[in-house]
Amino acid sequence: MAGVEFVKGHGTENDFVVLPDPAGTLALTEARVRALCDRSRGLGADGVLRVVPTRAVVDAPAGVDDSLWFMDYRNADGSVAEMCGNGVRVFARYLVETGLASEGRFTIGTRAGERGVTVHPDRTVTVDMGPARVVGRSAATVDGTAFPGVAVDVGNPHLVCRTDTPVDDLDLTRPPGHDPVVFPHGVNVEFVNVLGEDALRMRVHERGVGETRSCGTGTVATVAAWLHLAGRTSGRATVAVPGGQVTVTVDERGSTLTGPAVLVAGGELDEQWWADNGF
Ligand SMILES: N[C@@H](CCC[C@H](N)C(=O)O)C(=O)O
Q: Which of this chain's residues are annotated to bind substrate (predicted)?
């Protein structure tokens, strides 16, 4: 086979390898995802976004139109996740830059359902992220300290811990402890400081990846939890993350995420490397 094409991109420095697969025939094994994301033996990334027609995706959820481009998202450890807020912005930008979609508003298929996106002239992207549902309370532990948090479902699971401890002081090199009864499939854990009336700062430890410089679904969960703790159901906030800043709105009907989407480079994977890293 010819070398596999790729594009490298990021959204607030949450970085991805984009793999176009118009025929739906790419054998994207867990081993290949791990190798691609490895920062020493691969390209290096937090995750992989396969660009594939929905009709070719065997586990596409019911209700996603077959004619849509589908974001087949994988974490760096090879696991599949339902949704990726930074990834979907990069995915949308990729579709526009390659002529597979036109600037403006269109819809993308994901494992969390259909998501409306708007690619703006300045190349920022707004995503309709769907409902951000507060589903309970739990706690995370870091270095033996418990941080109470709010569990939020944004298609994927989050535990948002608002704290007065400066988030920049936390050691997130190891996964925070969590309650496996509340989160049987693992969880993305956000630590949040309130900076001002509508300004938050967040760090995240992502399921299947580790600490990343941003997590789009995590920022939406963060704003939903912050509003919930204030007894509110709607509002707008900016969320500063190590890799930049995004804007989130939440109301009774759903949520939106707006932020940058950057394409860095493109090329072709070495055929022998692809073959060697299949299993
Ligand atoms: N970085 C993503 C979230 C990716 C999935 C997550 N690690 C999970 O396993 O749920 C984002 O920007 O939302």
A: 14, 75, 85-86, 156, 188, 206-207, 216-217
